[in-house]
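Please decode residue identities from the backbone states below.
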């Protein structure tokens, strides 16, 4: 009988095409698209409603976030506490989230209880009434969290950095100030909810060990015309160019925060989203610079210099734009030195080829991360919606794998020269002068 020689490493092989479970598409009677991913082994499902209800559709700060947060705080038929008790009884729960482009309300439930819990889910989605008492409590809680956040240099840096890139009145840079909490009215939320949380501004994705019978359940509760909306009320919603982008003219800025233990640093620029031909290779270049624990920024500024516990870079893909950014927090006494080292690493990428050994390591890391991101039905659903909203299809992931396989150091050098010019970037430091 053959025995396994544990002194030998298993053979190394590169992964080619990756096939994974894809969605099935349905429509409710009122036209709401339903994307169904039947995967997994557990009798569990997630029903996620995605609305045109992010900051992009709001005309001032707080509205999108507050509207979304109050969906389960009370309905026409019961209080928020009663609604939670009904949903909890079946071992289910709701999650809400508002982002720049979209808002979400999701139901997690055992499949055997899905039919029983669905009417209560409908109440949260369709029949929310935004009770005055709960509104006042929530706005006060949000205000207190804002005060705490406003003392954190990292939070201040992140929020104001977006404002420097997009300008004061762009939906991707909405920043709440103290007066916004006092000026926001319950009626603002009702108006936003009435306009945006409608069947014609909704998409549904269902993931889990499910079949098309869940579509029938959804159609029974959500397939009618009793919650359809009117046409687009804000023409800017469909015309990104209508929102003027006015970046700050001064590229290097400092916001004083006396008493700060550390300084927060943010460096970056507006870039592009997933639809751009250079997005995929740029994600690889970003990983080399600061996209994983072994990146150049981490190796230099954390491991070698000891200036920070963590530093990273990222490519943020938004529906109508995108950006590249580097972020960290360092001691005020080493802030200038840290900035110098960050720009040094950027310039090395723009002048020297990435060694083959390093590029192979990054490619293998990204391949492992990609495979991990396909683990489970909810991950598969996120993977699909991550391309669907951009008008892309599954070939995007085939292109990603091909890019991982074929991109060269020379190509990445040219991308760094084209997109990572330090003179094109904004820099923001929040803290105290060193």
């Amino acid at each position: 009988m053959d025995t396994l020689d544990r002194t030998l490493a298993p053979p190394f092989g590169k992964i080619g095409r990756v096939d994974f479970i894809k969605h099935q598409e349905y429509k409710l009677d009122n036209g709401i698209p339903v994307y169904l991913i039947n995967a997994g082994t557990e009798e569990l499902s997630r029903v996620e409603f995605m609305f045109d209800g992010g900051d992009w559709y709001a005309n001032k700060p707080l509205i999108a976030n507050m509207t979304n947060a109050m969906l389960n705080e009370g309905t026409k038929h019961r209080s928020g506490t009663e609604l939670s008790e009904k949903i909890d009884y079946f071992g289910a729960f709701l999650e809400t989230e508002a982002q720049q482009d979209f808002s979400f309300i999701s139901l997690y439930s055992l499949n055997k209880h899905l039919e029983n819990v669905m009417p209560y889910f409908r109440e949260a989605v369709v029949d929310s009434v935004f009770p005055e008492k709960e509104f006042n409590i929530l706005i006060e809680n949000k205000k207190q969290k804002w005060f705490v956040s406003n003392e954190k240099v990292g939070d201040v840096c992140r929020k104001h950095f977006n404002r420097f890139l997009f300008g004061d009145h762009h939906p991707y840079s909405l920043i709440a100030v103290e007066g916004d909490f006092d000026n926001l009215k319950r009626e603002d939320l009702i108006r936003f909810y009435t306009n945006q949380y409608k069947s014609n501004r909704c998409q549904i994705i269902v993931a889990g060990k499910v079949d098309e019978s869940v579509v029938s359940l959804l159609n029974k509760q959500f397939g009618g015309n009793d919650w359809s909306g009117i046409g687009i009320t804000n023409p800017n919603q469909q015309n990104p160019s209508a929102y003027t982008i006015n970046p700050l003219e001064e590229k290097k800025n400092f916001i004083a925060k006396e008493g700060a233990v550390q300084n927060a640093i943010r460096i970056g620029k507006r870039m592009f989203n997933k639809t751009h031909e250079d997005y995929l290779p740029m994600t690889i270049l970003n990983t080399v610079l600061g996209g994983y624990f072994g990146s150049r920024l981490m190796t230099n500024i954390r491991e070698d210099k000891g200036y920070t516990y963590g530093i990273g870079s990222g490519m943020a893909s938004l529906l109508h734009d995108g950006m590249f950014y580097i972020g960290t927090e360092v001691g005020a006494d080493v802030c200038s030195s840290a900035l110098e080292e960050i720009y040094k690493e950027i310039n090395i990428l723009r002048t020297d080829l990435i060694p083959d050994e390093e590029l192979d390591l990054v490619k293998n890391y990204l391949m492992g991360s990609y495979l991990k991101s396909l683990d489970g039905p909810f991950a598969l659903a996120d993977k699909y919606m991550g391309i669907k909203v951009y008008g892309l299809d599954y070939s995007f992931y085939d292109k990603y794998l091909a890019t991982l396989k074929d991109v060269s150091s020379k190509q990445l050098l040219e991308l760094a020269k084209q997109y990572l010019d330090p003179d094109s970037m904004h820099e923001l430091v929040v803290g105290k002068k060193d």
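Observation: The longest strand covers residues 322-331.
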